[in-house]
Amino acid sequence: MMACVSDPTRGPGAPSAPEVAAAEVAARRFAAQLLSGEPARSSEEVAGRLLAVQGQDPRGARLAIRARSAGLTAADVDRAFTADRSLLITWLNRGTLHLIRSEDYWLLHPLTVRPQHVAGCLRNLAAAGVSADQAEKGVTVITGALAEGPLTRNQIRERLSAAAIPADGNAALHLLMLTCQRGLAVRGPLVGAQHAYALVADWLGRPPAALDRDVALAELARRYLAGHGPASDRDLAKWAGLSLGDVRRGLTAVAPQLRERSDGLAELRRAEVGALPSPRLLGPFDPALLGWESRDPILGPHRQVVTVNGLFRPFALAEGRAVGLWSWSDGQVKLDMFGELPAGVEAALAAEARDVRRFLGSAGTGPQEDE
Predict the structure, then answer these.
(1) Are residues 148 and 86 in the same domain?
(2) Which of 70, 260, 262, 272 could form an SS bridge with 39, CB 3.0 to 4.6 Å?
(3) pLDDT at res. 365
């Protein structure tokens, strides 16, 4: 067994070279994520930087924008969905719901909605008692109904039932998923507390010229790195739900735009150096946990507390690590820390709790539509 030899150049308690390297990567990723540095000034700026924000938890998607911006409210996010039509939610990466800028739909949908996602949706429909023929009829009924204007899931369920198509349980949701996977509909405006669906052709208008696949893969790689670099090819493949071959083609195409790194990670030349964020309250399914292969740099020993059975709980971040959980109930933030924190961190998290209340305001319950 090789003896462990101490480094005489390091003083007591000084970080090791691997620790310094890991801290540098983390700081740069936090800056790319808009969790440190200058905050965004609009919902669209956040969505544009991150490219796609996990969207199955309506409040969580809005809180991801809050944590990366200044002065916005949940009502501002909802206005972007409804009045501005600049944001939408639909099934994209890995077959899951994501919040994106409307203009990025044309890049992401053709690249990330794969045949296996559609096949999985059809299997779920069969398990819910919807045959293949009924599924096709269901898509026709949904698109015909949406031609009259945006409708909520409950309204669409009524139309499906009237057409004798099974719509109980999750059947209506899976039929809507299939319609969205086919590129026919998206979640667009808010109607009361519900996220309504709209036809792509009506809500987004005429599509731009289709991108060559290699061009699209290069743009995907560049945009991913802008919001997640430094990162590996496997990080991008996991995030987008694409093959390693595809993402490597994209990364190779943008190689002239990358800076040299000794660790083999990819990063844009113009990336900010970054710093660890100030203490922050991050919502459920926050992008800080979903952009890379490993969540250990942030969660450490608390991984199975923050992530439980596929759910990602709201957590407190300090010095780049998860330091506790938090929840929202009756218009209040409840903090549940993993251990004692310095007084300055506690004060900063209390200020964050006040800002969460300000952000959510009367819209604190958020839209009720979910995956």
Answers:
(1) no
(2) 70
(3) 52
